[in-house]
Amino acid sequence: MTSAKAATAAVVLALTTACSSGGAAPQARDSLVWATAHPPNSLDIAHGFNTASTLIQTAVLDTMVTLDTRGAPAPRLATEWTQPDPATYLFTLRKGVRFSDGTPLTADDAAFSLRRHLDPKVASQAASYFTTVKQVEAVGDGQVKVTLKRPNPAFLAMSAIAWQVTPRKLAEAHPQDLGSPEVGTMGTGPFKVAKFSLTSGVVLERNESYWGSRPALRRVEFKTIADPETLRLAVRSGEVDATDGVSVRDARKWTGLPGVKTIFYPGNNIGYLSLAVNNGPLKDPHVRRAIAHAVNRRAVSDLMTAGHGAPAVAMLPSPQLAALYGDSLPALPAHPYDVEAARAELARSAYPRGFELEAPYASTGDSGTVMQTVAADLAKIGIRLTLQPSPADQYRARVMQHDRLSIQYVNLAYGTPDPLEVLPDMVSRAAAEPEGFNFSGYGSAATDKQLDTLASATGQDRKEQVTALLTEIAEQVPYIPLFHTDYAVALNERFTGTFSTWSTDAIASLRPAGR
């Protein structure tokens, strides 16, 4: 399962759009076609917190704050903010901002847009970002006051990803289907939605009343091309101008395309195995440790990254580890590839002779490649995976409902340098509920308390608390980190743009070359 949290994250519908055999029709200079490997399922982050969906959301919906090139919070819809006390933020709203229909943005819209993530009836996929939020209210003339349950140094960074602002009237009328093709969405961003279809794609048009710098492009069309080779041929022919559907393991096929530049940059992501610790043999920690020893993670990493990534050593994306620890990564419990050690762990379990386990996966994307490799490794120690491919949309729906979870391949992309963006997805009980990203089910009152304590920690204390959680995850093995990858974008040389680890303006930055 692949997902994005801002960045990044989920297996979504797998629809293939074939390239035309007759080549591409000429595109207007200020119009661009962007292809994704998966279609967006919702233009509302509460129900579409995945790569394909958030890519479009960030072009349409502004957040109160953004991230600068270093990953630090910076003004967006809020021109400034103060902290009357460590658990309170007072945001000053930018004046003169209007939604794309001309309606003025109000502090009430901004306050409600955050508050709705706290509503259980909304069942927001971004709810874990705001567990420390106690109250959100519009105050004074164009100000929003956010009161936290306790100080949380990660709050601003989380807001830069998930506090997307929509009109209160629209969001309140559609708590469950905002962002759907039937309802759509509306924002104050550089583009507005002209069309959204699950089958024929999305068309964005320039928001002529945008408060910021005018986008160079008048129109951006998003289409889905699920088959990697069909996608590559579409880019090569010029039918498609850009895509983020470049698999780094096929990088050599892309870097030589005439008239196309392939851009690689560090990815804030992690691919891993999630083990459902409350189900069947996976309840046994000896079984989980046996699996960790049996999977050749270096081989999986080499296969999946082709030199544009590296094996993962802990359950955090590489940029987050670097931001927190620098070059001094702490020593964590390890389960290196060792078949004999795997057999020894299995012998200590309640399943010394092995067992059979059903393992569903999405039939498109990287899931099949990873799961087939894992199945071959586990067969060496007597664990027989029965692989069950299913259409990506069905698989995603099943996984997000936490239905019959087993051993899953997951690849999550994140948007901030803060580990508190990731750790609740891994060990909080709230994220173990349907629509949450804790697919292992690992978590307890103790881990929830650790997360609460971490939320207000700073400096060395923060490092030590993150290390304690990473150590527990490594010891108990609800997850097996596999690899990190670079991000890659293929872009026709007629266009240029800005792509970086922390950028949320990739679409708005696109422009004809030379402008």
TrEMBL record:
Signal peptide: 1-24
GO cellular component, one term: ATP-binding cassette (ABC) transporter complex
Keyword Transport appears in the UniProt entry: yes
Top-level taxonomic group: Bacteria
Domain spans labelled Solute-binding protein family: 73-427
Keywords recorded for this protein, A-Z: Signal, Transport
GO molecular-function term, one example from the UniProt record: peptide transmembrane transporter activity
Keyword Signal: yes
InterPro entries attached to this UniProt entry: Peptide/Ni-bd (IPR030678), SBP_5 (IPR039424), SBP_5_dom (IPR000914)
Protein name per the record: Peptide/nickel transport system substrate-binding protein
